[in-house]
Design brief:
With 270 residues, the chain is α+β, with helices and mostly antiparallel strands. The protein has seven helices and twelve strands. Helix content is 36%, strand content 24%. The longest helix has 25 residues.
Length: 270
């Protein structure tokens, strides 16, 4: 129930990453439009959260612990670091399953195979194998040299480094279309990237589970941030009205005579 976007870019001051999410979330009393989805992992690193709240919070804590243990983070270790976090969360969920049912960890359950009926043991092993980590998030930050790193972290599909941009959440396919349509890449000018990311988020709003509130910030090396103000959003909205997709009226398209031709098809009998 969200959209998250992280896009690398540049300006006269060097590298930057534009971060953007909506604010829609669910509560026991319904949905809300003010949920924070950009979370700090450590100075200079952020986790854009999409997915299941029951998995997002544990994964966030595991990421913080993992990243604090790393002296330097770069392209050689970030994938394995995030992958290990997702694996640890799945291990936690496997332990929860066997502890609730059998009062033992999953590792102990596997060792005690001979003590269980074969059919029931195999059924529980299959159930654990189907456990997923309901996170489709983005990890973004800068390495020691100030170069941007953007990682897609999907609990079911693994971890990948993204050079230009990453999107996640239920509105991700429309957001990705918007950025691809604008040919966005990692050395795009910052000002243009801010608009492209805003436009992509607005595209994603066509999915009912994506909220109308927009949170947009610019992250730079050294844990420096800039936030989009109301006047900034008002300007971007005006540009979107100018350059974004326009509503197509029901009878607006009228093909000229000769645009279509009739072709008769004949089905020959065998």
């Amino acid at each position: 129930m969200t959209v998250c976007i992280a896009a690398a870019c540049m300006d006269a001051n060097g590298h930057a990453i534009v971060l953007c999410t909506d604010g829609k979330g669910s509560t026991p009393f319904g949905s809300k439009e003010w949920m924070l989805k950009i979370r700090a992992i450590r100075p200079g690193w952020r986790f854009l959260t999409a997915g299941n709240d029951d998995d997002i919070i544990p994964v966030l804590h595991l990421l913080r612990n993992k990243f604090r243990s790393l002296q330097n983070i770069d392209e050689t270790n970030i994938v394995s670091a995030v992958t290990s976090v997702l694996a640890e969360r799945k291990q936690q969920k496997a332990d929860d399953y066997t502890l609730r049912k059998w009062g033992m960890t999953f590792a102990d359950f596997r060792k005690a195979k001979a003590e269980f009926p074969e059919e029931e043991y195999r059924s529980d092993i299959a159930s654990v194998g189907l456990i997923s980590v309901g996170v489709d998030g983005i990890v973004a930050g800068f390495d020691a040299h100030g170069f941007p790193l953007i990682v897609q972290a999907h609990g079911d599909h693994g971890v990948q480094i993204k050079e230009d941009f990453a999107v996640s959440g239920s509105g991700s396919y429309l957001a990705a279309y918007g950025l691809l349509h604008r040919d966005h890449y990692d050395v795009f000018p910052l000002q243009s990237t801010i608009y492209c990311v805003y436009e992509a988020k607005r595209y994603a709003e066509r999915v009912s589970t994506v909220g109308k509130t927009t949170y947009l910030s610019i992250m730079r090396p050294g844990n420096r941030f800039e936030l989009l103000t109301r006047s900034g959003e008002s300007y971007l909205n005006g540009q979107f009205e100018k350059y974004g997709p326009h509503t197509l009226l029901k009878n607006e398209i009228a093909l000229p005579d000769g645009a279509l031709s009739v072709v008769e098809s004949k089905i020959e009998s065998a």
